[in-house]
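Purpose: get a first structural picture of the assembly so the mutagenesis plan has something to point at.
Setup: two entries, given in the order below. No constraints added.
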Amino acid sequence: MPSNADSADQTREAQRQRIMDAARAVFARSGFHGASIQDIRAEAGMSAGNLYRYFPSKEAIIAAIAEADRLRIAGMFEELDRAEDPVEGMMALARRFLEEMQDPQGSAMCAETMSEALRNPEMRAMFWDNMKDVQAGLARALRRGVETGQVDPELDVGVAIRLLMALADGTMLHRALGPEMDRGTLMAQFERMVRRFIAPRSSIP
Amino acid sequence: MPSNADSADQTREAQRQRIMDAARAVFARSGFHGASIQDIRAEAGMSAGNLYRYFPSKEAIIAAIAEADRLRIAGMFEELDRAEDPVEGMMALARRFLEEMQDPQGSAMCAETMSEALRNPEMRAMFWDNMKDVQAGLARALRRGVETGQVDPELDVGVAIRLLMALADGTMLHRALGPEMDRGTLMAQFERMVRRFIAPRSSIP
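Result (structure tokens, whole complex):
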């Protein structure tokens, strides 16, 4: 049985989670600037006093959401590191990313983050911290792919990774911005683009 | 020699242009919501009364900027229609897009537009109106490429176009968000991704 201290920790974590979920919804709807602590506390159904026990400011909530995203991303890349086939592992990760980001709230939060990161150096540093983990994970997979002969050894890994992230984020945004596309066709063509891009000349799928 | 009416038109157009340029700078810095008419008039160095003679509201300035972008895009696609080689024409257009969007203001405006379009149905309709012209122009080039044997006839043109737009917009955003990349390497790998993606299996470059 959990001790009283454990149970207090759990309640605290659940409350923080509740505030972060409410904040995601409000940020997606109103943007970081348009959202007030008042909006977030209303969305979470809490008093302002209660919310301030968990987060001192809107910026602290944004930082907590960025940290939660970082941990989620780290988990996805641990899975990629364990995948037997690095290219299939990358494809599985891309499919999961595009699935998870399919809800309008996910893409709106992501667009707002990029937009704000372009204006605000602090947000850019936070965004780039998360991107560095993504880059490192993708670099490990591509280098493993070079060893197995699945990835072109002449590919500039640093730039290739930026283009792969660009394609994934761009796809997520354009999917949300325009009319719905057939999921199977989208995934098949996304994979075609990535697989052909990274393959050595002699073994393009 | 221009008549008095022509010269009045020219002055009017120059003043509208001056306001739109100022608004772009302010929107890139503060976002659509953070920007006030007061900020725009200060940036343009005009009185509020003078500004209101040209635009009744911030929304009218945004609409005028979107329309100017639409015309600029249409011009780029007229060039693509005239290009002898449709694939080389697409590559030239992509290079021009990535060059023009390289200044931080261009990418910040674009990110802000997408972010706002995900929240606001009116902005989404405006964004999608511009995207429709891009899509139609890319579809014409890809279909010409199918005829010349440069583009895979089995490619789903509708989805392929969305992915190409996603890659271009994503590249523009990620380039601005992260450390600088070597321009030549970036362009070469961007082209590799597009050329290999669209090519028929038998003639992948």
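The CA atoms of residues 19 and 150 of chain A lie 44 Å apart.
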